[in-house]
Amino acid sequence: MRATSVDRYGAPETSRITTAQVPIPGRGEVLVQVEAAAVTAGDARIRAGRFPRGFALPARLAIGVLGPRRKIPGTVFSGHVERLGDGVTDLSIGDGVAGMTGGRLGAHAEFVAVPVTALASLPEEVAHEAAAGALFGGSTALHFLRDRAQIYAGQTVLVNGASGSVGTAAVQLAAHCGAIVTAVSSRRNHALLRKLGASQTIDYRDSPIKGLSRRFDVIFDAVGNLSRAEGLRLTAPDGVVILAVADLMDTVTARGRVHAGAAPERQEDFALLLDLVAHGEFDPLIETLGGLEALPEAHRRIDTGRKVGNLVILPPRRESGPDTIAATGGAE
Ligand SMILES: NC(=O)c1ccc[n+]([C@@H]2O[C@H](COP(=O)([O-])OP(=O)(O)OC[C@H]3O[C@@H](n4cnc5c(N)ncnc54)[C@H](OP(=O)(O)O)[C@@H]3O)[C@@H](O)[C@H]2O)c1
């Protein structure tokens, strides 16, 4: 199969197209033909070996010292079931599914093998591109807002980094719960954020959020430029601070009203998000860039720090020429 490979941490161009063996699904797994895959801030971190302060050493020990041990990147996919592993009874070949691969990566390829617990059924109304775009920011925002902040109608929520993948999901999900949302981004994204449900918008270049005198019930930082102490200063006395990009120190000291750490990847959350997309209640704001060849461009866009919403690639798409690549060699 065609796949992308990242051998060493580096610039966007470090990701290249290669050939790899089609994975064999193990017990409880399925082989998915990937129709669409998201390219995320998480993918860019792994490609570059770039992690929040204090995490570089533990992250490299976990995923690879000079380059990722798992060579095929990508965590978010939508596609259809191509083959069933042993013990899989509740899915059939051809079923539409979407999910996340977690630490095994591998979604930036024509096929990926995943446990059935890592995916949800794709509703008929949802296109593969929309499904792939919905899950990264969506599951992060859902976890932090629902499970950690336990938000409810009428609360005031400030979303910092509101126009990215996590931020656009946080704005929409908070507004969906009836919260009053203040979205922080550059001015060019303000109209979009109001359309998504923000009541107020702030341009961080005119009004740095650290200097705001207002207090909020929930501060959701999806940029990483707010410390634990600064977040607490911006919250009401019983308010909650979410640091989605905390450094190591703020992560280990997060307790009480401050929440940090990695959002889990849960099948039931994928199903909920896909259902919201199907009912027009969550817009994943996707931009489709092309086939696997578009991956360096997607990484360049993420590295600017100005990406809006979600970038999606379509692994089956060929930019030119017939498919002459056979299933040889292994990239993992
Ligand atoms: N904890 C977890 O489990 C978890 C899960 C997923 C992601 N994350 C992390 O969350 C972060 C955000 O991810 P993402 O996918 O949303 O990134 P993204 O889509 O690349 O975010 C880009 C957005 O950030 C905005 N931005 C840049 N600088 C800003 C600033 N100073 N103030 C306000 N907004 C600013 C940009 O808006 P403008 O163009 O308007 O400036 C742009 O739209 C990443 O660091 C990622 O690693 C954590």
Structural summary, described in words:
The chain is globular. α3 packs across α4 and α3 crosses α8. Strands 3, 4, 5, 6, 7, 14 and 15 form a seven-stranded mixed sheet that branches. Strands 10-9-8-11-12-13 form a six-stranded parallel sheet. The protein folds into two domains: 182 residues, Medium-chain alcohol dehydrogenases, catalytic domain (Quinone Oxidoreductase, Chain A, domain 1); 124 residues, Rossmann fold (3-Layer(aba) Sandwich), CATH 3.40.50.720. α6 links the parallel β11 and β12. With 332 residues, it is α/β, with parallel strands linked by helices. It is built from nine helices and 15 strands. It binds NADP nicotinamide-adenine-dinucleotide phosphate. The site of NADP nicotinamide-adenine-dinucleotide phosphate has 31 residues, from α1, α3, α4 and β9.
